[in-house]
């Protein structure tokens, strides 16, 4: 007896409606950014470029890309698209770890400082990514390795911005090193 499941292939190409919705979403985000860019004063700054130049650029690129996505989806979809990799379903718990990492960073950066907030963000995000790969959390040893790695990434970035570029990131101490 042959195994029927091995002879069947699952079509994983997204439905054209979903592809169209992604394009429309990009157009909407671009339009919202354009409205926001229009509210920024256009006074030319250094080099003749005003503070609204980058938001306008991003808005136009989003609208153009969104229109292109809509056109692609309406003319047959993404014909040269490779099959998607990874799990067939989203891992919402892993995504929650990563989203929680970003939210914790934003919520705590002014309270505990840039270095500690970014270290925590790294630890939580890595835990979510590790979970998405099907690996365990690794225990206390892995937590310590992640914390030290996050600290070794965040501290030089903090120093670079504060000392070299003279852009003040939030610090935990009055001396401004953490």
Task: Tell me about this structure.
The chain is 65% helix and 0% strand. The protein is mainly alpha-helical. Helix 2 packs antiparallel against helix 3 (53-74), helix 4 (92-112) runs antiparallel to helix 5 (114-132) and helix 5 crosses helix 6 (139-164). The longest helix has 26 residues, at 139-164. The termini are far apart.
Q: Identify the overall geometry.
A: flat
Strand content: under 5%
Fraction of residues in H or I helices: 55-70%
Number of strands: 0
Number of helices: 6
Mean pLDDT, to the nearest integer, reads 83
Sequence stretches where pLDDT stays below 50 over 5 or more residues: 1-7
Largest sheet, in brief, is: none
C-alpha Rg, in Å? 23 Å
The first-to-last residue Cα distance is 67 Å
One letter per element, helices H and strands E, the order comes to HHHHHH
Backbone structural class:
mainly alpha
Key words describing this protein structure:
6 helices; single chain; 178 residues; flat; mainly alpha; 0% strand
Condensed summary:
By secondary structure, the chain is an all-alpha fold. The chain has helices at 4-7, 16-38, 53-74, 92-112, 114-132, 139-164. Helix 2 packs antiparallel against helix 3 (53-74), helix 4 (92-112) packs antiparallel against helix 5 and helix 5 (114-132) packs across helix 6 (139-164).
């Amino acid at each position: 007896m042959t195994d029927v499941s091995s002879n069947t292939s699952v079509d994983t190409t997204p439905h054209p409606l979903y592809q169209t919705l992604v394009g429309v979403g990009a157009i909407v985000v671009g339009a919202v950014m354009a409205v926001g860019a229009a509210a920024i004063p256009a006074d030319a700054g250094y080099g003749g470029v005003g503070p609204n130049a980058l938001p306008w650029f991003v808005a136009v690129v989003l609208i153009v890309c969104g229109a292109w996505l809509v056109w692609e989806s309406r003319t047959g979809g993404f014909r040269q698209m490779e099959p998607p990799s990874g799990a067939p379903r989203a891992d919402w718990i892993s995504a929650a770890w990563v989203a929680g990492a970003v939210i914790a960073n934003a919520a705590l950066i002014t309270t505990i400082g840039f270095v500690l907030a970014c270290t925590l963000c790294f630890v939580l995000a890595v835990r979510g990514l590790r979970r998405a790969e099907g690996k365990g959390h690794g225990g206390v040893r892995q937590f310590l390795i992640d914390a030290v790695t996050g600290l070794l990434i965040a501290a030089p970035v903090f120093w670079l911005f504060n000392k070299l570029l003279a852009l003040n990131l939030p610090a935990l101490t009055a001396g401004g090193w953490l």
